[in-house]
Every structure is written in structure tokens, then in C-alpha cells.
């Protein structure tokens, strides 16, 4: 396994954002990479997002860490997804079993691919707290290097069992939905509060809130807006929030 820590860094999600407008997607990826974002998260579940991403990374593949997923009910279907990913990306830095689908069947052949060097890290993901006990069982096997979970001031269920478990086992944590799918951005605190947090925007405050938990490595906000991509990438730099600043964010998020 490579060194456990991936972060703290801001990555870029691609769900719902990479299919419809190729020019805009190019600008978003360009803005994110230029602003220091290094990790891009995708999946076969996100329509044509992987293919679009591969085209956008063509002349700067070495600048990106590709995190994508296997989302397949059988080993055969999973291997076919992986063949396509190798053709697009050459190598997959973080291969995650999406929503734990058929994970016990996939993990053997994925470990073999990791041993061959075509995958750097193996992970699992789930979006629902109803599946967190199963995520915990998968992590306990110690066969995974990363786990992707939802975390924001309104969704904190992973703090109870999975973040402590990941920290204990040395598993890197990737945070999906760090902005609550945009819902948390409907109301921003006033400028003075943002100044107290040493950030310029409320989105940056929410991203820093998650990254300031030492058990968290990566946040992967998604955006269709290059300006937002730039603004989000900046949140991947210190200083990190102390406990008081995190509580301030939680109060303004209405929790
Ligand atoms: N949601 C899930 O269940 C799920 C499951 C598995 C994996 N993931 C992964 O996690 C990634 C992120 O989660 P998500 O896309 O569900 O939600 P999210 O990143 O929490 O929120 C995305 C929303 O925030 C807005 N936004 C982003 N940056 C902003 C900024 N600086 N200022 C204002 N608005 C901003 C975007 O709108 P604009 O386009 O206007 O910026 C978009 O509507 C996904 O793309 C995917 O890679 C998600």
C-alpha cells in the first residue's frame, strides 16, 4: 500500500456535471487543476463522465489522481468496466467498489490488479447510513485503502463508527456531498463571520470544516462553474479550523 494520507486536499466530483456541456466541463477541470486540485472522482454510474474526463485529462494525465469506481453486479461486468478505464486513464490511482455492490466478489481480482500496479489503492463507497454497518464489515477485512462517505454539518452519521474505524485502520477518507448537494449554500453567513474563519466564501468554509477533521483526507465538491472550481480548490490549504471555528460553521449551517 502507498502512504495512507491522501490529503488534506480538495478534489473534484463529476456526478451530474460532466455530461451535458463539453466546453464547460473542460473549463471546470482546467480551473480546478490550475488552482491546485489534483484528485478527480468519477464512476461508470455517472453516464459518460469517465469518458469525458479521460478526454479532458488527455494532455495532463500526470497532473491528476483518478479516483473512479467499479459498479457491477458480476465479476465479468466489473472487469469490462476496468478494461475501459485502463483504455481511458492508463492506470487507476483509486479504484472504489461503488455502493459496496458485489464487493466480496470484486475484491479478489481488484487486489490482483493492485499487485500488478494497474491500481494504486482500493476502496469502497456508500452514500447511505443504512449501509454503514456493511461498510464497517468491509473495512474490518483490512483489504481496503480508502473509504468514501457523505459528511457535512447536516450529515454526520459517519463520525460515530466509520471515521474512528478508518483512523484506527489507517484508511484514507474521501468525503462526498461536502456541500450537501448545494443545499447548505442557500444561506451564507455575513462577511464578518467568513473573515473570522479566514475564508472568502461559505463554500470554502464548509469544505474546510470537513478537511479540518484530522480523520478526513479529501473532499470532492462537484460544480458546473469554473469560478466555483477555483474557489473550492483554494479551500485545500491551511490554516485549518480549530474546534471553535468548526462549531461556528455548524451554527451557521443550522445544526
Ligand atoms: N451525492 C451522492 O449521493 C454521491 C454519491 C457517491 C459519490 N458522490 C460523489 O461526490 C461528489 C460530490 O457530491 P455532490 O455532487 O452530490 O454534492 P456537493 O458537491 O455537496 O454539491 C454540489 C452542488 O454544490 C454547488 N457548488 C459547488 N461549489 C460551489 C461554490 N463554490 N459556490 C456555490 N455553489 C457551489 C454546485 O452547483 P454549481 O454547479 O452551481 O457550482 C452543486 O449544485 C459527486 O459529484 C460524486 O463524485 C456523490
What is shown here, in short?
It is built from ten helices and nine strands. The chain has a nine-stranded parallel sheet.
Structure description:
The structure is a single chain. 40% of the residues lie in helices and 15% in strands. It has 255 residues and is α/β, with parallel strands linked by helices. Strands 1-9-8-7-6-5-4-3-2 form a 9-stranded parallel beta sheet. Strand 5, helix 4 (103-115) and strand 6 (119-125) form a beta-alpha-beta unit. The protein is globular. Bound molecules: NADP nicotinamide-adenine-dinucleotide phosphate. NADP nicotinamide-adenine-dinucleotide phosphate (NAP) binds at residues 13-15, 41, 125, 127, 176-182, 185, 203, 220-225, 228, 231-232.
What is the overall shape?
globular
Largest sheet: number of strands, sense, barrel closure: 9 strands, parallel
Derived from helix and strand composition plus strand pairing, the structural class reads: alpha/beta
Terminal-residue CA separation? 38 Å
How many β-strands, per DSSP? 9
Quaternary assembly: single chain
Cα radius of gyration in angstroms: 17 Å
Mean pLDDT: 94
Residue runs with pLDDT of under 50 for 5 or more positions: none
Amino acid at each position: 500500500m502507498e502512504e495512507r494520507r491522501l490529503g488534506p486536499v480538495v478534489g473534484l466530483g463529476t456526478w451530474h456535471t460532466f455530461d451535458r456541456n463539453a466546453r464547460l466541463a473542460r473549463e471546470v477541470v482546467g480551473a480546478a487543476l490550475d488552482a491546485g486540485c489534483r484528485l478527480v472522482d468519477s464512476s461508470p454510474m455517472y453516464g459518460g463522465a469517465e469518458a469525458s474526463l479521460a478526454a479532458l485529462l488527455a494532455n495532463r494525465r500526470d497532473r491528476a489522481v483518478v479516483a473512479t469506481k467499479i459498479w457491477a453486479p458480476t465479476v465479468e461486468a466489473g472487469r469490462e468496466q476496468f478494461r475501459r478505464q485502463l483504455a481511458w486513464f492508463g492506470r487507476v490511482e483509486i479504484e472504489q467498489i461503488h455502493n459496496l455492490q458485489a464487493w466480496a466478489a470484486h475484491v479478489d481480482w481488484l487486489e490482483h490488479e493492485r499487485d500488478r500496479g494497474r491500481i494504486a489503492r482500493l476502496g469502497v463507497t456508500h452514500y447511505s447510513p443504512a449501509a454503514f454497518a456493511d461498510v464497517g464489515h468491509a473495512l474490518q477485512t483490512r483489504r481496503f485503502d480508502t473509504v468514501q462517505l457523505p459528511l457535512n454539518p447536516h450529515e454526520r452519521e459517519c463520525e460515530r463508527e466509520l471515521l474512528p474505524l478508518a483512523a484506527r485502520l489507517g484508511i484514507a477518507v474521501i468525503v462526498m456531498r461536502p456541500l450537501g448537494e448545494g443545499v447548505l449554500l442557500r444561506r451564507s453567513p455575513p462577511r464578518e463571520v467568513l473573515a473570522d474563519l479566514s475564508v472568502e466564501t461559505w463554500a470554502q468554509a464548509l469544505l474546510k470544516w470537513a478537511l479540518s477533521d484530522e480523520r478526513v483526507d479529501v473532499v470532492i465538491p462537484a460544480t458546473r462553474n469554473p469560478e466555483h472550481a477555483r474557489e473550492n480548490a483554494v479551500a485545500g490549504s491551511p490554516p485549518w479550523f480549530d474546534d471553535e471555528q468548526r462549531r461556528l460553521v455548524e451554527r451557521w449551517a443550522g445544526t
